[in-house]
Amino acid sequence: MDLNRKTLEHNKNFMSKTSVMERLEILADAAKYDASCASSGTSKRDSRDGKGLGSTEGMGICHAYAPDGRCISLLKLLLTNHCIFDCHYCINRKSSNVRRARFTPQEVVDLTLSFYRRNYIEGLFLSSGIIKSSSHTMEQLIEVARILREEHDFRGYIHLKTIPEADPELVAQAGLWADRVSINVELPTDAGLARLAPDKNGTQIEGAMGNLSSAIVEAKDAQKRFRRAPRFAPAGQSTQMIVGADGASDADIVGKASTLYDRFSLRRVYYSAFSPIPEASAVLPLKRPPLMREHRLYQSDWLMRFYGFAPHEVQQATEANGMLPLDIDPKLAWALKFRERFPVDLNRAPREDLLRVPGLGTKAIAALLSARRHRTIRLEDVARMTNSVAKLRPFIVTADWRPTLLTDRADLRARLTPPAKQMELFG
Amino acid sequence: MIAVDLAEPDDFEAWRAEARRLVALGVPPHEARWAEADGPRDLFAAPAPAPAPASAAPERQVRASRAFMDLARKAILHSDPGRLALLYRVLWRLQEQPRLLDDAADGDVAALERLAKQVRRDIHKMRAFVRFRSVTDEDGTERYVAWFEPDHRIERANADFFVNRFASQRWSILTPRLSLHWDGAALLEGPPASRGDAPSQDAAEELWLGYYRSIFNPARLKVGMMLREMPRRYWKNLPEARQIPDLIAGAQQREAAMIATGASLFEEAAPPSLAAIAGGIEACRRCAIGCNGTRAVMGEGPANADLMIVGEQPGDTEEREHRPFVGPAGQLLDRALGEAGVDRQAAYVTNAVKHFKFTPRGKRRLHQTPTAGEIDICRWWLDGERALLRPKVILALGASGARGLLGRTPSIGKERGQAIAQPDGTKVWLTAHPSYLLRLDGEAREREHGRFAEDLAGLARMLRG
């Protein structure tokens, strides 16, 4: 059971050890095109009672970062990269010439426990290529989660990718073991899906997301009434869209994301800039989208979730071709288009107006609102609460500062470009 | 002056008891000297007086808000020796201003918040970066042992997290200040440890290293982002971090292989605006310099400039200030242009290479000359700037700047002081790089300055005519 002892045994048998390692390399490599590695937002658990293993905090933990800047929080694996589907953007598609491998559910369980005990990870993110049938594959994924939870009383984080084509009964079961479930909508437009993922079906994907969403709501409701009602995916559901593989503009993508948030009460929509994959299909565009585009989409996502922007307002920030500017962030782009909304008086403006100021984050705004009950805000006070006053100045009024003319200058955009680099918004 | 000794630097309850007593006694912050067992002491301060007898003047009631207590519990763990005095000062001020903590713009409050924030981050990083290795105890049971070096005194405060998570396995966390041991039922504290006390290998670690290599996507190198969240000082205790240099080099080789096979690094259309170039160079990872974690420096100046000036690459000052030609070489250039009667403000100033190439030497970053290959890759951006600005004359400073413009490395000595006509109608004018002049001495310096001035005078004539 314990991988440590197992690998020691395997040391005697060189072949089988390289085989675990080799398969791990193949199946981790195949899993890296899923952007999510979040381990946050689930119910709080621990194993202080000495039984079982693991704990979850409200906030996830990134145990390492790779040189691609991405957080490593979970053991992200495919159970297998064999696949009967032929989606053009996917490295594991049937017609691709990659090396194939598979793990048994027990092997994934052993790896997860062995990594978890050494504090490498918060838990497991398991996905899979489709083998035999969608339902068969889903059964295998559920089996991994069941062994972890039932046989090992594992209390860490589990994220299961669910397969929309599988029997709805099975998809529902996944939610009983997992903290988070997700179904990828894959492409922002139905036309893109039809062309690039011929085996998938938009209606079916959204139907499955709808089922999950109602199961999550029902379980939450039942828990309020019966303390021992089963939990169902307490960290909710998320999805992922591939950016730049079809012709969808940023405005289209923002619109799609907002619909998804509304209809399925998603926790997160992840964007994955289509990255050139080995064995690329000829249907795909040769041009890769700039990584910055993905970043700008995450920023616009943040604007909708935390800054009170309506989807049509984010779309107002796009240029004539429906794309968000790459050189400046969408909040600044919006502010430059709606200059009449500025400057905002930091001593008087309500929170929703402060949230519009480029360079002011939610934390700084909370500090400002609290501080201005005690003092009249001056520029130096703002400096103490934010990263950069220089960026803010054209948009704010304080007791000792008023941007004369600055907001109206034609070259304001150039003066504020490029902005300080923001943190990548994964997590 | 009243001295207060704290036996354990992270003992919040002890600090709290002492601080309450001093506030009750009416000792103002500047009269109290806080010291800790392992810190420096004020030899001239008197020890704190014994508690006043009950019959003495009525003591002040001491108040502290819940928010202060929460903040203070974190801030006291900070390694900054000044934190005790700061905590006391805030507590003292709270007596008159009970809502002081709401004022984030207050200097003391901001300082306290900053300490607490750094401690919280350290606590979080310890939870993330502790790496256990498995050993077998004498009774044959497995024990998981880690060596960790926190920045602040967070070990005890963080023990609960590891108990909650790993109560069912035996574990030890060794640190330079103390060691924590969990035997399955109770948490024990041991003496300071050293790295050698922890096991040096582990049976499953190879698999973890393999996972780390495979989950990394070499098509999207973002070293700066990784460094922000996983700073180098943690690397020595992270087994997977040993692989980082090889992974980065491998990713760069992959790009190099793409060039070698003739695939273009730039598949997009030419940048439509200077702003697009500014955004593009910031994200550009097409050569090794772009991947070194520095910020790209964009050209600067009016978009309708007649004169464009092209240097080699941003230097240390330029990278930090994020502007071209603001360091010593830039100042020399400014002076010389002024003397020649050329208005630098009217010129667009940029570099052949947009990122700063350097080798670290202690705390300093020493300039390194970019290779011809690197200049050629970056030429895409310089060409973009040229196409958008359409200057009449371009002044190339040094061989690197000239290569970025001409696509070949000219001999400055032979080709300086004459206009080199370009297919697009612009004229390129060569001279030495001002940083070359800064490195010279004596007669050579005199001579080269003279030639530099001559070149610029020629440039001025060309601009007028």
TrEMBL record, chain B:
Keyword Iron-sulfur applies: yes
Molecular function as annotated in GO: 4 iron, 4 sulfur cluster binding; deaminated base DNA N-glycosylase activity; metal ion binding
Tagged with keyword Lyase: no
Keywords (A to Z) from UniProt: 4Fe-4S, DNA damage, DNA repair, Hydrolase, Iron, Iron-sulfur, Metal-binding
Uracil-DNA glycosylase-like domain location: 298-457
Protein name as annotated: Type-4 uracil-DNA glycosylase
Family recorded in the similarity comment: Belongs to the uracil-DNA glycosylase (UDG) superfamily. Type 4 (UDGa) family.
SMART domains reported in the protein's UniProt record: UDG, UreE_C
Bilayer-spanning residue ranges: none
GO biological process: DNA repair
The species this protein was found in: Novosphingobium silvae
